[in-house]
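Before a colleague's protein record goes any further, I have to sign it off. What it holds is a sequence and that sequence's fold in C-alpha cell form. My question to you is simply how this chain folds and whether the C-alpha cells agree. Thanks in advance; the entry in question is below:
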Amino acid sequence: MELNGNNKLMVVAADPTLRRTVSGVLSEAGYDVCIDRSENERRSGVQVVEADTHEKLTLKLGIVALFAIALFAAAGFLFFYRHTEKEEVKVHAAINRLQSGIPTEAKMVEVVRKAQEEMEQQATESSGPQGQGPKQLRLAGSPDDGSLKRQIQGTDRRLKRLEAERSTAKDVIRFYSPSICLIQVVFGFKDPSTGLPLRYAKATPDGKPEKDAEGHSAIGINGTGREVQINAFGTGFVVSSNGQILTNHHVVEPWWQDDDLGELLKQGFKPVISEVSAYFPTSSRKVPVHVEKISSEADLAVVAGDLRSLNLKPLDLDDRPGAAVSGEPVVLLGYPTALDAILARAGGDTLRSLADSANDASGLMKELAQRKLIRPVNTQGHIGDVLPDKIVYDAQTASGGSGSPLFNAQGKVIGINFAVLRDFGGSNFAIPVRYARSLLSPQVASAK
C-alpha cells in the first residue's frame, strides 16, 4: 500500500484476490482506498503478448512441418510412381515377349530366309574353297618305320567311331522321334481379391491389343480388351505306356523362376492355366494333357494324357554310373525355338496358307499338326563334364528345347535338357534321369 497525492490509500497487489481482500478491510476501517491496476494490467499485457508470440511461433513451426511432410509425401509418391511405372513396363515387355500370337506371312518368310542363309553358310564353310583339292598327307618317317601303319590304324578307329555315332543318331531319330512332343501351355492371370482376369486396356478395331510407340500394351483388370493369354512352348517325351510324359517344371509352369513374370506375382496376380496340350509328329491332332507331378528336387515335371491310339514307344532311361561319360557322343531331340524352327522347314506356299487359315497361336498349331509339320530337331555333340546334379554337353539347343531327352551312344536317355549358357553353345545342361525316378509310375521307376 502507498499514499497517493490525494491522501488516499492505494492498494498495489499483483494478485487480484489479495487486492480485493485488502481493499475491503481498509474500507471497513474508514480509509479511502483506490486500487492501482497498472502493474497487474501491465503484467497481464505482457502475458498476452507472450502468449500471442508463442501461438505465432507454434503456427509457423506447424506450417513448416506440414510443408516438410507434404514435400516428403510428394517425393515418396514420385519414387513409387516411377518404380511402379518401371515394373509395369517390365511386365508389359515380358507379356509381349511370351505372347505368341499368329505370325504374319512376312514374319514367317523372314524366318525361313534366315534359316536358309545359315544352312548355306554352314555348307560353304564345311566344303572349303572352291577348286581346292584334298591336301596331301606328309609323313615324318618312311613307310617302313611303322608310322604310316599307326596313322592308318588311328584314322580307321576314328572313322569307325564316327560311323558308330552316325548310326546311333540315325537309330535314335528313327525309333524315338515319334515319341517326342511339343508341349503348349496357355495361361493368364487373375486378381484373387476380385476374381477378375488380367485384360488388355484397349483393343484395335480388329480386336488386337492396342500398343504404344514402344510396342507395349497396357494391361489391367478393368480393361476393355480381350483377356491376356500367354502361349509358352517346351519339349516332352513319353516314358511309360500309361501316357506319362517327362518334361521340365518351368515348361508346365512358365512363370516359375521367371524374373519378368515374377513382377506380376509380386503385385498379387495369380497364374491360371487354361490349356496344356501335346503335339506328336505322327498325330494330326493335339492331345490334352494334365500336370501329374512336379519334382521338389529338380526342374522336372510329369504330364499325362490318353496316348493309347498313338502306339508310341516309351523311351528307355539309363541312370547307371557309367551311362554318362565325359567325351562320349550324345544326341539331343527336341523343339528348339518352337514354332520358328517348324515354320523354317515349311515351304512358301505352306506359309501363305498358314497365314490365311490360322487366326491365333492355337489355330496355327492345329494347322501345323494337320499338315504333319510338327517334327523334332536333332543335334549331336559330346559330353563335356558329368557333375552330381547336371550333365554338361555341347549339342546345340535353344529356348523351346527345354525338356528334350539327351541320348547316350547306347540310344538311352541319360538326361533332360533344362538350361543353356547364352552366347556359348559349348555348355548346355541336362538333369540326370535319376532325379526323375520318383515322379514316374512304379514299373517305370524300377526299370533300368
